[in-house]
Amino acid sequence: MATHDTDVQISICGSAGDGTIAAGDLLKQAMAHAGYRVIAFNTYPAEIRGFGKCIARTRISTEQVYSMKPRSDVLISLNDAHAIPHVGEVRDYGSVIYESAPITRLAEGQHISGHVRPGQLPYGLPLRELSERATGSNRSRNMVALGFLAGLYAMPREVFHAAIKAKFKTKPKAVSEATIAAFEAGLEVGAQTHRFDLVELGEPPESLPGNVQILSGNAAVAKGCIEGGLDNYFGYPITPATTIMERLAHDLPVHGKRMLQTEDEIAAISGAVGAGFAGARAATATSGPGLALMGEMLGLGVMAEVPCVIFVSQRGGPSTGLPTKTEQSDLNIAVHGGAGDAKRIVLAPTNVEGCWRCAGKAFEMAEAYQTPVIVLLDLYLSNRFESVNFDPDENFNLSIPRGKPKHRPGESFRRYQVTDSGVSPRSVPGEADGLHPATGLEHDEFGHPSYEADVHTAMSKKRHDKLNKALKHPAITISKRFGDTGKVDVGILAWGSTFGEGLEAMMLARKEGIRCAAMKVVMLSPLPEAEISAFMDDCDEVLVPELNFEGQFANLVSGTLGRPLHRLNEVTGHPMSVSAILDQVRALAAHNARNAA
Amino acid sequence: MSTPLHYVIIGNGMAGNAAAAVLREHDPECRITIISAGALLFYNRYDLPNVFRGTESWVDLLVHPPEYYERNRITVRRKSPVIDVDSKRQVLVLAHREELHYDRLLLATGGEPYLPEKLKDSRPLMHNFGTYRAAMTMRAALPDGGRVAMLGGDVMGLDLARALIETGHQVSVVTDERTFWPHEVDDQERPRYYEALERMGIEVRDQGEVDRIVEGAAGMPARHITFACGEDLYADVVMPFFGIAPNVDFMSNSGADMERGILVDGHLKSSSENIWAAGDVSQIWSPKSKSYRFYYGYRNVRRMGETAALNMCGEAVEFDTNDDDVIEIDEAGRIQSPFWEHD
Prior knowledge:
The complex is a heterodimer of chains A (597) and B (343). With 597 residues, chain A is α/β, with parallel strands linked by helices. Chain A folds into three domains: 190 residues, 3-Layer(aba) Sandwich (Pyruvate-ferredoxin Oxidoreductase, domain 3), CATH 3.40.920; 178 residues, Thiamin diphosphate (ThDP)-binding fold, Pyr/PP domains (Rossmann fold, 3-Layer(aba) Sandwich), CATH 3.40.50; 118 residues, Rossmann fold, CATH 3.40.50.920. Helix content of chain A is 37%, strand content 20%. Chain A has an eight-stranded mixed beta sheet with strand order 6-5-4-1-3-2-14-7. The two termini of chain A are 44 Å apart. Chain B is built from six helices and 22 strands. The chains are: A alpha/beta (597), B alpha/beta (343). Chains A and B meet through strand 5 and strand 6 of A and helix 2, strand 3, strand 6 and helix 3 of B.
C-alpha cells in the first residue's frame, strides 16, 4: 500500500466511564508519534460520569487533512446501546469491533452484531474476559480493544507503549504495566485475526519537518498565550473553554507568571482589563454565556483603550444551551455585543495551528492597537486534536512600543491624542509623566470626561479607524483564498472550524470538475472587506456554511458589502459534514450551468 | 394488519441464500434473517479454487453485492454462531447470548470437512479449503510449483487439484475409500478412474493407510507422510478431503429427529414444528431406497433451498430425489463430475 493513500478514521464509542476518550487519546498520541498526521475530535455528555454517550473519532493520514471524515473506517463499540446508532457511520468494507461475550442475556437487537450492515465487516472478541485475564479487572476493556485494533492493522506497538507510559507517568508503575498488559492481550488476538475489511494503513512518512506536536485547540491557545507573553490570566471555568485555564494554571507559574481563578466571569474580565491597564499582557477565556456577562467591562476596555484578550469558545446556545455541543452562534455578540459603538478586534482561527497563532497575535494586536481582542473558537476547534508542525524559529513580538508620553509645557499627558494612525501614546500606572484619567465616560484627548458632539465624534472615529491597521498586522493570515484561481462557479466563504469542511468540500468539487474556490476569513472584525469583495467578484455563486441558525457571518458579509450570497446553516450540535457542503456546491454549480445555458 | 412472519435461516451458503431469495419473492412483507458463523457475505465456495487463477479478494467471490441484501431487506447476522434452538419457544440463542425469535426456521448449516479419527492428531499439520480464509492460508503455504498431498480426494478436492495442475503445481492423491466422494465408484472401476486422474496430471498414491505426518526435515518440503507399508511422500501442503460431516451439534435440544443430519421428509420439513432443513445438513427420506440419504452438489443444494422456502411459505413441493449425479470419464479420457459444474 502506498503511504500517501493512508486516510483512516477510527471511532470509539462507549458510555462515560468506559475509557472511551482515554482510548482515543492514546490512539492519537501513538499515531502522531508514529509519524502520521492526526486530527481527532471527541464528543461527550454534559454529565461528569456514569451515563451518557462518548465518541472519540481519530483521523489518521499521511497527507494533511482539514476535517473529520463523514464516515469512519472503523468503529469500536465499548457500549452497544450507544454505538448501535453509529454503525451506519462506518463505510462499506470498513469494520465494526465489539464485545462478543456479554455477561447478560440480550433481547433481539440489543447486540451490535445484529446492526452491522451487509457491506461492513464484523470483528467480535471477548473484551471483558481478556481484560480480566490480563489485569484481574474488567476495567481495561478499552485497552484490550485498542490493542486489538493495533494488532489487526499492524500498528507499531512501541508507540502505544510509549503513549501509555507518558499518560500514566505520574501514577504508580503498576498502572501503566496493567494497561500495557491489557493492550497486549488485545494486540495478540488482533494480530492473529484474519482481516477481511478493506481498510489499509500504510507506512507513515519517514519524518515530518519541524517541531510536530499533537495538541487540542485549547492546548494550542495556551501555548500561544505562553509564547505570546501572557503575564496574568483571570478565569472562571465554563465548557468548552475550561481546559485553557487548566493548562495555564500549570504552565503560567512555570514561567513566573500568574493565574487567578475568579468568582465569576465579570470578575475575570475586570481582572484582565485591570492588568491590561497596568501594562501586563492579560487574558481571560469563556464561552457565550460568559461573554454575555463580560459585555460591560469589554466596553470599558474599548472606551479606555485597554489591551486585553478574551478567548471565547462557542457552544450551543442561547443561555446554558448545549454545553457539550458545538456551534458558531456567538459571532454577533463577539463582533457587536455590548453597549455603544464598541468596535473591537475579533479573530476566528480555523484550525489548531491557527489557535496558537491567533492567541499569540492577539496579544500583539491588543497592545499595538490598544483594544480588547476577542479570539473566537468553538467546541469543535477547542476539543479537536491535530498534529501541528510548529516552526521553532517563529516567535511572537513581545515588545510592542507604547510611545512615550510627551508634554507641552504646562499641559497634561494626552493619553487619547488623535494621531494619524489613530493609536495614541500610552502610559502605565507609575510611569513618569504618564498620569492621566481613565474612564468609561467619553473623554477628550487628556482623558477628561466630555460630552461635546465633536469630541464624541472624533473619539468614535479614532477608536474605529485605528483597528483597520490590524488588517495589515504582520505574520498573520487575515483571509486566504484556496482552490481555483480566477473565475469560478462556486466560492465557499467560511470561518472558524467549519472552514476545514469547506476546504475539503472544495477539493472534492474540483475533482468532480466544478470550478471552485474557498476563502477562509480569520479576522471577523474589522472585516477584510476588500479581500472578500474581490473573492466574491470571481464567484458566480457564493456559499457561506456555518453552524448557526441565523447565518450570522452571512449577515455580517452581506450587511457590510451589500452582496447576495447563499447560506448553509445547521444547528445539529455537530460539525457540519463535508458532504452537506459539497451537495450545496453541486446544486449551485448545476443551477449556474443551467442559467448559463 | 398481521405481523409479518420472521423467517430465520441458519446458514449463509447456497441453500440458505437460495431460500432467502424465494422467501422474498413469495412473501414481500416478511422479515428474513440469515445467521452465519462466518464474517463474510455469501460467496461461492465452489469458486474457491480460483484463488489460484488470479482471484485476489474475497469481494470477487461474492455472489451478491452488499446492496442486494439492503435492497431485498435480508438481514445477515455474521459472526453469530447458534448455540441452541428452543423449538417450543421458537427462539434461537446466539453465541453472544442474544435471543432471536423465529416463526419459521430453515437449517442450512452445511457441513464441516470430515476428518477420520486416526488423522485427528495430525490436524495442525494439514490445511483445509472450505472457507476463503482457509483457501488463502493454504495458498500462502504453497510455493510456486509446490506439491500438495491430498488425503482421500473427494470431488471438491479433485476440483482444487484441477486448478493446481492448471497453475503449475503438483498434486498427489493418497487414495482412500472416500476418493471421489460423494460419488460411489466400486473397486472394479477404481483403477480406470485412477488412470484418468493420472492423465489429468495428478499423481495417484494407492498405498493404503497413512502411518504418520510430520514436519519435513530442513531443506525438504514442509510435510513428510509415512505410509504403513513403509513408503513415504514429501509435500509442501497436506490436505484432507474425506467429504463433509453435517453441522448439527447445536440442534440437540431442538426436538428435531437427527441421524447424521437433520431427518426431513420430501418437503424438507423436520419432525419439529416450523423447522425445515436444506443442503448438506439435511438427510432426506427417499421413498425409492426407503432410507434417509444425503444429496450433494451445487445444483441439489440450491434446489433444496428453493424447495424448502416454498414449503415454508405454505406450498407443498416435493424435493425431487430421483436426480442422482454420476461421475464419468469423457471421450478425452478425463473425469467429469456434475459437482464441478456451477453458475
